């Protein structure tokens, strides 16, 4: 394999309570990339960790001149941490990956191969089920991607990961995106360019447990679908039209029954009907409310994240240690 040794890579790694994984991950990446001749920088983003992750990053930054860290003021979420790291990146390509070693660093070599072939984006997707995932995570993952593909305007492979390579021309465009509740896996698909997906088998976490709960996964699914499509609004419009039509067709039956002196249905059926349509209206209004809420939050123009400290600044598109 011929490597473009005059190119520089920026590896962005969001980190949340990963104190025992940092040093091991750095060693794994060094073993993978040192033989290639690529220049590279590691940009760790501490996303409000409650353990000694930040101290581990500071120690490794003192040892390795190409290790940089950015500390966020609190836990803003993985995608905002990715955005903070990408904003700092100065390489000819940016690689994003997790800090828990479930994204095998050796896969970077395959990404580089496809990048050299001319692809602008090389993303990964999980091959089969996650052998290390919990039962509910496997189920919710399948439902998430099926629902996303059905209800949104983007199509993604099951198990698409935040383990990807992005060419610098794509990165320049990503840095311009400023939206509330950003979802990079969807943004990457939406951006277009010349893309290729490669399958991978996730490794077992080096240490620690996954921080995504069932509630967080459900919230992610809802916000993601609504961030990439107005289709739910069209669906509830069709549902409303359907039930309105049924209600109109019911009017002649009521009038004929009244004229012929038939007994009117009892209070139980009336209450059941009112409860059903009341619940339906609340459900439809809640969907509209979520969209309105997203518009409200976007209109505030608050920053997506706040940096508390860092050992780096950008000068002329280069990272300078401070």
TrEMBL record:
InterPro entries registered for this protein in UniProt: Glyco_trans_2-like, Glycosyltransferase_2, Nucleotide-diphossugar_trans
SUPFAM superfamilies from the UniProt entry: Nucleotide-diphospho-sugar transferases (SSF53448)
What residues form the membrane-spanning segments? Answer: 233-255, 267-292
Per the record, the coiled-coil ranges are none
Q: Which Pfam families match?
A: Glycos_transf_2 (PF00535)
Q: Name one GO cellular component term.
A: plasma membrane
Q: Which GO terms describe its biological process?
A: lipopolysaccharide biosynthetic process
* Ranges where the Glycosyltransferase 2-like domain occurs: 10-173
* Keyword Repressor applies: no
The record's listing under CDD domains reads: DPM1_like_bac (cd04187)
On whether Transmembrane helix is a keyword of this UniProt record, the answer is yes
Please name the GO terms that the record assigns under molecular function: glycosyltransferase activity
Q: Which UniProt keywords apply?
A: Cell membrane, Glycosyltransferase, Lipopolysaccharide biosynthesis, Membrane, Transferase, Transmembrane, Transmembrane helix
The protein depicted here goes by the name Dolichol-phosphate mannosyltransferase
